[in-house]
Amino acid sequence: MSQAPSVRTSPEAPRSSLPGPRSALYIVHPPELVGQVIELLPGLTIGREPPLSPSDEASNAPFAALSHPTVSRRHCLVRDAFGVPVLEDLGSSNGTRVDGLPVTKPTVLLPQTVVRIGSVLGVVDERPFPGAEWTPALPGIAPAVVRARDALRRAGTGMAPVLILGETGTGKERVAAEIHQQSARPGPYIKFSCAELSRELAHSQLFGHERGAFTGASGSHRGLFAAADRGTLFLDEVGELHLELQAKLLRVLQEGEIRPLGSATPARVDVRVVAATNRELSEDVERGSFRRDLYARLSFFEVRLPALRARREDLFWWLDYLANVVAAARAQPHAPLQLMPDAAEALLLHAWPENLRGADRLVHRLLALEPQVIGRRVLAQVMPELGSVPPPAADPPRPSSPPAVTAAPEAPPARPSEPQNERPSRDEFLAVYEGTGRNVRATSKHFGKDRRQIYRWLELYGIER
To answer: Is the peptide bond preceding residue 260 cis, with omega within 30 degrees of 0?
Structure first.
């Protein structure tokens, strides 16, 4: 899965005359097609078989083959709408779905859109680009992961602090441990959650204290910085630090010295600080709840970890990896998870608010049931929240015979005008939002709405700002 897959097009496709694709479809299910990546070229036809002969009128258009019995000979067509790929179904036998809904009209494909072609599932994202090799903490092919891996590679060696940003459960602690390993520092790796720091004893916990420094101090205490000398100190949830403690941490980062409570003599320490938070510290700086100078010191390097919903093409790899970890801990053999197409689609469409922690919990529950094949009924038992995912089509997919190719319009139909007091559909809103370069002000002007309403629609439709 780590190898760069190829794109299959018809031999006569005039690739050089077409604009370069900005998006690609990453095939993630079924297992025999995993690894294929289809560049979403304008005019691209996706189907089971390429044109029959050079005399075929479509033989000069780009073609991507999906060798699966539920895919029609010519299944769907990709068009371009102001630089955004749009998908149309070509009268296929088993239909095309985007984000769980049947494609009955040209449908916009934005990053992390889930596409179902027959029973084949793919995720839309930026086209692949070269980057750092897989690491234990950041495996995967998603472009957002590739960027994070490049940032990790740059931050790995050296002494400068590193700030890891990401939602809860995205793997920040794994990345911090890998930074310590790459830096090859001889000292220990010590991790601590700043949310656990008692405000009254914070100075002692981080910088130590001498005997008799305060009531109850019957002995001296080294503190975390002294314990991590020549190594790495990982400060998780650094955004929870009180402002007073932020000032003391800044002094240590600037001067490389600590002063234990009750001591008149500072002590030198050689510690690399790696901090992590699920907060947007830049916004906290503007609000005045986090020091600007400390933020600048902590973020010599920044590694931003994407949420699981922003790297859906890696979801099934993670599920299988976590299942192997659980099985190994139980000393039990483990076969790869067998997912039915409807179950795989439901998992891809899930928002995963807890990210990898939610995926880990799902794997534990699935392995406890020991199902041979995982369908939607099994998922409903272990993950009731998937009930909100659109249900599958009523008829099961059938082997596809060559269908008649429907005539596609020369251009996607224009967005119908909407009365100002009505909410646009998700596709219409996405098309305008993307067409304005994801500019909230321009989008609000287009719809004649206040910007707060645009933010509400972004949240309603689950679109990242």
So the answer is: no
Residue type at 68 in one-letter notation: H
Query: Which has the closest alpha carbon to 7: 47, 44, 37, 51?
Result: 37
With a CB cutoff of 8 Å and minimum separation 6, the contacts of 100 are 114, 345, 349, 389, 390
Instruction: Take residue 164 and report the two structure tokens written for it.
Output: 């890891």
3-state percent helix, strand, coil for the chain, nearest multiple of 5: 35, 15, 50
Average pLDDT (257-274) is: 87
Q: Are 148 and 129 in contact (CB under 8 A)?
A: no
Distance of CA 367 to the CA centre of its chain: 25
Helix (H, G, I), strand (E, B) or coil at 145: helix
Write the burial class of residue 184 (CB in 10 Å: 0-12 exposed, 13-18 middle, 19+ buried).
exposed
Contact 368, 123 (CB under 8 A): no
The two structure tokens encoding residue 429:
């809103």
Closest by Cα among 342, 340, 320, 456 to 389: 342
- Please give the pLDDT value at position 420: 40
pLDDT in tens, 266-280: 889 999 999 999 999
Start-to-end C-alpha separation, the chain: 30
Q: What is the DSSP letter of 339?
A: B
Q: What is the pLDDT of residues 289-319, one digit of tens each?
A: 999 999 999 999 999 999 999 999 999 999 9
Helices (H) and strands (E) in the chain, counts: 14, 18
